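Appendix B. Extra example for self-study. Work through it before the problem class; the solution is given directly after the inputs so you can check yourself.
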Amino acid sequence: MFDPALFKLPGMRRVTVILSLLAVVEGICIVLQAYYLSVAIVGLWHLHSLATIVRPMLFFALAWTGRQLLVVIKNRLMYPLVEKTTGDLRKQVMQKLYRLGPGYVAKTGTGNVVTTALEGIDKVQTYLMLVVIKVVDMMVIPWIVLIYIAWLRWREALFLLAIFPLIIIFMIILGYAAQAKADKQYVGYQRMSNHFVDTLRGLPTLKQLGLSKRYANNVYQVSEGYRQQTMAVIKIAMLSTFALDFFTTLSIAVVAVFLGFGLINGTITLLPALVILVLSPDYFLPLRTFANDYHATLNGKNAFTAVQEMLALPVATDRQQLGEAPLDWHEDSTLSLQAVDFKYDDTVSQPALSKLTLTAHGYQRIGIIGASGSGKSTLINLLGGFLTPVADQGEIQVNGQTVSHLSQQAWQQSFFYIPQSPYLFHATLAENIAFYQPQASQTAIEQAANKAGLTAWIQTLPDGLATPIGEGSRGVSGGQAQRIALARAFLDDSRKILLFDEPTAHLDIETEAELKTTILPVLQDHLVFFATHRLHWINQMDYVLVMDHGQIVEQGTPAELAEHDGAYVRLRDEMVGAI
Amino acid sequence: MKDFLATFKHDTWVMPYLRKYKKLLALTLFLGLMTFFCGSALMFNSGYLISKAARHPYNILMIYVPIVLTRAFGIGRPAFRYAERITSHNWVLRIVSDFRKKLYQAVEKHAVAIRQNFQTGDVLSILADDIDHIENLYLRTVFPTVIAWLMTLIIVIALGYFSWWFGLLMLLMLGLVVVVMPLWSVLINGARESQSRQLQQGFYTQLTDAVMGLGDWLIAGRQGDFYERQTKPIKEIAALRRQDHQFQWWRDFTIQMIFGIICLALLIWSSFYWTSNAASSNWIAAFVLSVFPLVDALQSVSQGVSEWPSYQRSIRRVNDLDTTPADEHDQTTLTEPVQMLRVADLSFQYSADNHAIFSGLNLTLKAGEKLALLGPSGTGKSTLLKLILGDLIPDQGTVQLNDVPVTRLQNERARLFGVLDQQPYLFNTTIMNNVRMGNLNATDEQVKTALKAVELDALIATLPDGYETVVEEGGARFSGGERQRLALARILLQDAPIIILDEPTVSLDPITEAHLLATVFRVLHDKTILWVTHHLAGIEHVDQVRFLEDGQFDMAGTPQKLYATTPRFKRLYDLDQGHDTPNEEV
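Solution. Structure tokens for the complete assembly:
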């Protein structure tokens, strides 16, 4: 309900103290408002004239206005803190994201990351705005009201005091019952609620199978089944609200009857009785408003926990072991891995990559081949520093200097990474090409585009290089996307290392053949790691790593490997369909 | 207001359903009304009770009725509220069932067009969300507003019964709360909503961009730029939220002030009307106290109504869907077996200002023949498939089965064509159910035979639930190759004479691909096959190869002949086989 982590937020303690003081004032306003209203009513009840109740009416109006103003003041006091906190959280999330890198995104899913940063924090905002004020109100106002009632008449106060925990106990019990019921039905329930989207997505397939028309009734029936299950859960879930309602209204009724008897017996006069009656709904009000927003606060609390968890994730440290400036990679430079292991998850015993040993030097062109799932991409990601190897095991050296991982600032600024589908930013074509060199001149960009074989395509675009591309804009084919990625490499010749992760896997053979003529010149004078399952690339490699089940099972020059009947030869045979 | 009416002018989604299930709707509104009535009546009655008791009636029986009523209202309020919530949810969920069916039917007509769309998932999720939205429109806006209006009406009539001018005054005051304030809210919020949506959308795009391109940001070392980009939208969103909140606080404050004034007005009115004698003055507390429970009910109208703009968008979107039934008068059936598939003199372009995809294309495929179709992306391979299936209508020429145009065979389609595409959809149900979709009348044995034919029997035997294993969302439980095999089993049961293979191996690795193609051509050996493929692996399985380029076939023949006579084909084939000698140009 009230997360202790909230108090760790800067400024929260101070605001909570002020809010509590304001709640005390509000409680006093509530008492005054009830008192003066009752005085006015009792005046009229005694058949006095309107003139005699002008003063109490005025005081009532003042207390009422004061009370409502306090509500606004509390919100205005709380809001800047909430705004600052959520703004800071958003910034922290983005900073954390940058440090966690694409490995985290791949594991968590783009959708989830965006949802956490956007809707998650929106929910946190709602949560912070609601929960602090409401909890403080609930902790303060009922007791001020109750103290005043007790001062007037202890018996009613005692009754109201006793009913309070009773309500909470019943709400908790019924809440648990609803939860248990919901849990029991959860699996089927979840499937039914997803069924509709599932069906819509599968519509083309249904149409191909000739089932799409008659499936409409199925949609209706599943939805009706969903309705029945939902109703079964709602009937119990709503019971907890019912309990709250039942006890609060009935308490008011009981108090009214108590007071009625008290009046008949003459143990109390009308004025205090009326004040108590007016105050009793206000006694329950903070609890009721809190309960009404309970679900919103619950969502917000979960979102808040999720954000806190993300911010607490460990990140790679020691990113400056190679300094901060990009490496000067040249013909004598070396990268070596000695018995390096990698695990996606610390809890599993089987590493995703194990005992990796390799040495790359100068402008070697290294092909990485293997069946799918053999660890080619994982190896490329490890080389790119997007994944961190198991600590204190094996050794990685760059130019003889030992580093704990390759997520080194200097290393990462020395290579280009070209995946199967290079990401194109929602920006102009020129901005996309110049992403790594934002200061590049228009001429340089044009030259790079030309080398990458984009000129003919650019001429067909309405605004040439200034045409917006990327998500939601002009579609770019897979081959063109690769060329844009290559243009980035042409534009910045200082990065001497290239990591390719199946760059042509999804291209048609003609496009691939054309693209290959563009790629080949880039491979000159670069250290190249090229993961692929298109075998013809091996002809352009100096050295080959054959991967299987997360291990390098064979390595050597293509000619060496072809000579003896090992993993390389077997893989080649299998790949060309000689089954 | 004009805007509001325009939304409902051609509405087929909201209004008709208010009429359907009328009784349940009336019950919901009645129960909602009773909830607030009991709430007010409890305070009214209690006020009267203690005022009367304070007169020291000589007999307890004098206050017996109010005592009983107090308890009745005290229990009545929660009971009615509970019942109201249950019935309103029940009503809304019934409507949702109708909505879903209707949405499904509307989308079904355009099933293929939807797949074309890049963000298929998004469009469908948006539509599904729209339905949830309309659900909330009822629960959060329509019901509370109508109930509040009815309540207002009752109060005004009740007070007007005692004195008409005071009734009118109350109508004015309460009208401010339940009509003027909500309208004001919707005006303010409507203007802000579109701005907010734009900002939110912009931020969303930017965030997605940042997250998906994170690797590039990292490698580029542009940390500063990366942070800076997020700062502006964060600030703008915060500013907008601030305005939103401020508006709500002061609006609620104003409403509370109006209620304060109503209390004072009641006191003043009572001083004239109810102070003639002691008995009538017992009613004063009753009237004044009954105001407070109303605050909750009437105040929430403004918030509910201010959400209208977002509902309006959803209503418009679903109303824009084409729900007219398809025209079927021209459909016929093919009685004799398929002899040939003929594409004759086919011309097609998507719209007048686009370039022509095909002009005068010809292709004949005899029963049992197997043809591979290649060509760079964008040359119209998928357009040709859509024309063949009848999803698109040619501008000129025809696509015929025997001598019947396929456009007249649309109801027969599943009997004539089986389709295996890049990502066949697996439904989130068991393997058995998924495969049986190929032919709902298939016995368990037939399904198992089909699964054995596609070589999945061994895998299924290792699963704890065997054939009853749930494939999970989108078939996530299985690998790409296994999913294709499941879909292939489905096609085997479907048993159509012509099979369209639309790049089924595009996302598979070469080994999986080679195995899958071997299976496909083995189990479909007696079918007519049109195979769109992106490279030449497995090309030896077909009798004919066609290369589509610029709307025409520019290479055609058997794979063996093309290899022998066409250097370009030879080079591509060799490339696929892994032979590529440097310095050799295309």
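Self-check: The two ends of chain A are 62 Å apart (CA to CA). If your reasoning did not lead you there, revisit section 3.
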